[in-house]
Structures are given as C-alpha cells and as structure tokens.
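[Q] Does anyone have a clean structure-token version of this?
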Amino acid sequence: MLIDGMAPAEARKESRRILKAHGRKFIFGMLKHVFFIILILIAAFLVFNFLPYVGLENMGKELPQGYNADFLRFAGSSAQDAIEYTDSFSSAAGMDNLAGADSVAGLDIPSGTTSLTETDIAVIFYRFLCCLAVLMGSYLDSVVLLLCGAYLMLRFTRYYLEFTRGACASWPERPRKSRYGWKFLTMIGVFALIFLLSVLAGLFYHQFFVLPEPVKIIAHRAGGTEASENSIEGLYAAMEYGCYGSEIDVQRTKDGYYIINHDSDFKRLTGTARSPQDMTLEEIRALRIKDITGSGAELPVVTLEEMLDVIKGKEKLYIELKGSTADRQMVDDLARIIRERDCVQDVALISLNYSIIDYAETKYPEFETGTLFFAGIGNVARLNCDLLIMEEQIATDFRVEQVHSAGKQAIVWTVNTAQSMYRFLDSGVDAVITDEIRLAHETQQKLDARSDLQVIQDKLAGIWE
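[A] Here you go.
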C-alpha cells in the first residue's frame, strides 16, 4: 500500500500471491534477522542494564541505607553555622545591632564548620552513578530498540522489492549531504543532559526521591479483611498492623442512637433484612455479625461510643456519615458525642454527601472533615473540607498536586491490589484506605527495604508512565 500505492483489497491479494510464491524464503530469511535482533537486544540488556545494576547493588551494600547526604543539608548547616558565628562575634565586639544575614559576607568565617565526610562523598557519588545508569541505560535501550525496529522494516521492505521487482534497483540512494554532524551534536546534548540530571540526583537525592513522611494506611471498615466488618475486633487488627487509622460507617437508629453498619440493612452481615432507621438500639443489639476469622465468636453490632472508647489516643477514626440518616442532625449529634468523649483530635468526619460535610466544616471548624468522590470536574480542591478522598482511578498526580496546593490532604480509596498498593504507598498522597491491611504492611516493608538504585528506578519509571 505505501510503496506501490495499492488499495487495501489489491494489497491483500498481492500479499497472498507473494507469500505463495516466496513464502519459504521470506519466513526463513526473516527468522534469521529476528534471531539476530534478539541477540542484539539481549546483549544491550546485559551491557546497559544487568551488569551495571549488579555492580551498583554490590557497591551499595558497603554504604549506609537511607543516609541523608543531600547538598541542601550541608548548605543549610553552613548557613546556620555562619549565623551562629556572626552572633558570637557581634556579642564579643559589642555590636548587638549587627544583622546576621547581611554581615556574614563581611566576616572571616572559619572554613570547615560543616564539611562533607568520606561517607557523604561516597553516598553522593553512588547515587550519581545509580541515576546515570538508569537514565543512560533507558536511553540506550530505546536507541537500540529503535534501530532494531528500523533494521527489521528495512529487511522486510527489501524482501518485498526483491520479490516484486527481482532486485532493489529502485531503493533510494543515501543523500550526498551528510547530516551526521547534527545527529552527533544531538547525541552529545542528550548525554550532557543525562549527566547533569544524574549530578543533581546525587546532590539532592532526598529532595527528589524520598517522601517527606510515609503514606498513612487506613483500614477500610475498621479492619479490612483481617476481621469482621465494622467490628471492635477490626479496630484491634488495624492497630496490630500499625495502621494510622480505621474507616467506619455510622447510621442512626429509630430511637436516635448511632451504630456502625455499612449497608442500608443488616441482611448481608446478620441475615436480617431490616434497616437501622427502622430498628431500635435494643433490637439491633440482639443481632450478631457473621464472623469471617474462623474464631466462631458472636459479634454484636457496635455503637459509635464503643468505637470511640477503643481508639481514643491510639489511632485515627474516619467516621463516614452513611445512608439516608446522614443529615445535619447526624452532624450535630456526632459532634456532641465526640466532644463528650474528648475525641475531637482522634476523628475525621467524612461522607459522599458533600452538603453535610460543608455544613460540618462551617459549623464545627475544629473537626477534620473530608469528602469522598469517584468523579469530579474542575478543581475539587476548592471544596470546603480538609480531606479530599478520591477513588483510585481518578487519583492522578495532577489532582493530588491540586489538593496539596490548596493546603489539604489527598487520600485514595479503596486500594486493594498489589500493583496499586506499590504505586500509592510510594507516591505523594497522604493516605490510602484499604481492605488489605496485611498486604499494605508487607508492601511498605518492601518499599522501606529498597536500595537507592531501586528507589531511583521506581521513581523514574513512575515519571515515564
């Protein structure tokens, strides 16, 4: 179609004719070239990736893991030393009105107040090599892959010309005017850029690659899959796995009490197809939640007060205002109950219903509030709440940055797969809500155990994706 300008139907007919006449030669010839390309790709992987990474991993074993050798730390320490030296000099000379920042330049500040140690230099150089290996390896891999693809298409096209014309006489000649000079300069420019980025990575590793603090893990419905849903046992399971907090669902009973239940009725958990608002607390107390741990324990439906008594001072409780009873009265009642138990700092009020969260944030600004959403148009960070809790499919880096720029927290729900867990626990979000708290705990341990080289690989891979 491209070379001879054939229509699709005509091209298919001609292709069948060519394969019928020259199929054996074409297939075996292409297999030979494909095998040759595979060898080249294997060699490129060994030279550009495997061998450098093995060498760097061995080199990294001799260096302290997680060591802070960032240039900014030394620059900040030097500035602080200079200010302290200026203050002491001023006091000794009776120059109390000497401004530290402006006078430093005019003083002979002793050198060596803060200097790089051999370990600092070794760590910075090692991280420079790691970034250089990752960036250069990826670049050279792409170049080799591009050249191999071009070579394969070249051989493919030559076979077509040979089978249709008997020779490659019509193959275009190489242009007389060479452009290799520009290509060489471009390649040098790319290498220089990679070198510069690698230097910056070595000097400012913690700024680029290390999170300021670990992403918080919040257990979904009290304890996720480690305990029966919305149970006291779930809270203890979350604490056992070191979760920052637990998310629970609160609804109002017929007689005005607040119990913990997710669904609109109790059928899934207890077998009773009645809703909380149609039952009194006494009736609900007679129900028993299905045990999923195999212990055989008969678990009651618990109240909000019981949950607050367990978590006070131990973990954060994210209380989702749920169902048809989620209204302003619920907000007022919960605020009163939480205050009575002195748990304001231990809870956050969240809901899919933005109107009641807006009401809670406006009337009770001392409470942390959050809105859950699985779709949004525009800048959702403008919503009147402290937490933006977004479904994982819409938790893009851009949206997270929007939320942080507004001074609010970005939380992702419900993160349950290993791939998503690895992604978000190593991202800029503030917390993840998950059913799989055991998996989250294990994933966090794996992330903490990574070498500097693995951290750089993961971060750069995330940027390229």
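[Q] Thanks! Anything notable?
[A] The chain has 16 helices and nine strands.
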